[in-house]
Amino acid sequence: MRKHTNTLRTNKFSAVLIAAMLLLAAAACRKENLPANNTGTTTSSETVSDEDAADAITEAMTGQKAGMTDQATEQTTMAKSSVVPCGGEKDTVLGGAGTYGPASYDYLYHAHLAVICTLGIPSKFTGTFSGNTSYSTTRMSSDDSCSGEFVVTGLAPTSDVYKLNLNYVRQGSQQSNVRKKASFTSTITITGTDIIVDKTTLLITTGTASVVMTGATSTGATFSKTATLTFTGSKTATLTFGSGASYPLSW
Q: Are 210 and 202 in contact (CB under 8 A)?
C-alpha cells in the first residue's frame, strides 16, 4: 500500500508540474506575438500623425478665404480703407464660397469692427468674428466653426508697417483623404503677437505664431500637439512641431 500511495503522489506532482509549464509557455507565446509597445492600451501610433495635423493646420491657416492668413489681409484691408470711422463701431457679415484648383470652400462670419482713436487719429483697429466654415481638398475635408480676434496697430501715416495681434480658433471635424485616411475632431488655436504686415501688399512679411491642436480620433484616442509658425514673407511660412518635424507652407 505504501508503494502505491507514493506512486499516486508522484503522478499527481508530475501532472501539476506539466500543467504549470504549459501555462508558462502559452503566456510567453502570447507576449511574443504582441506588437512592439503594445500594452493593451491605445498607443501614440494609433492617434493623429504630425502629417495629418500639418494638413489640418495648413488648411486652417492658408487654404481658403476663411483661413487665418486671408483673414489677416481682410482685417488690415478694412483697417486701411477706414470702413469704420474714427472712434466708431460697426457690425457686418463676411462670407463667400468658391474654388481654388480642385478644392472648394465656403464660410460665413458675423463680425464686429471698431476703431480706437487718440487725439482724433486712429491708433487701433479691432475685428472680432465667429461663424461656420467648410472646405474640401485633395488632401483633407473639414466642417467646422471659427472664431477670432484681430488687432491692427500702426494705423498712423508715420508708421511704415502694420502690426497684427491675433487669436484664431477653428473647431470641428476633419477627414484626411491621404495616407491612412484618418478621421478626427480637433480644436486648432493660433495665437500671434506683433506680426508684421506690409502696408502696400497687406501681406504678412515676418513674425511668429504659436499653434495648439487638441482632439480625438474616430476611435476615441485623444491627442495634443504644439507647433510654431514662422512667417518668412512672400506668402510662405514654416510649421515646426514640438516633435521637431518641420513643414514648409505656401499659399
A: no
Give the cell for residue 84.
469704420
Sheet strand arrangement including 161-176: 89-100, 103-118, 121-136, 140-153, 161-176, 183-198, 204-217, 222-233, 236-241, 246-250
Whole-angstrom distance, CA of residue 78 vs CA of residue 34: 59
Non-local CB neighbours of 241 within 8 Å, separated by 6+ positions:
50, 53, 54, 225, 226, 227
Q: How far apart are the first and last CA of the chain?
A: 94
What pLDDT shows up at residue 224?
A: 96
Residue among 242, 177, 235 nearest 213 (CA) = 242
How confident is the model over 171-187, as pLDDT tens digits?
999 999 998 899 999 99
| pLDDT (tens digit per residue) in 124-165 | 999 999 999 999 999 999 999 999 999 999 998 889 999 999
CA angle in degrees (0–180, nearest 5) for 192-235-149: 30
Q: How far apart are CA 191 and CA 143, in angstroms?
A: 21
Where do the structural domains in the chain lie, given as residue ranges?
46-250
Distance in angstroms (rounded) separating the CA atoms of residues 67 and 158: 30
Please tell me the distance from the alpha carbon of residue 162 to that of residue 152, in angstroms, as a whole number.
6
Residue 145 · residue 131 · CB < 8 Å = yes
Q: Cα–Cα distance between 129 and 104 in angstroms, integer?
A: 22
**Alpha helix stretches (DSSP H) within 34-164:** 50-62, 68-81
Asked if 161 and 152 touch (Cβ cutoff 8 Å), the reply is no
Q: Which residue is listed with cell 493593451? A: 40
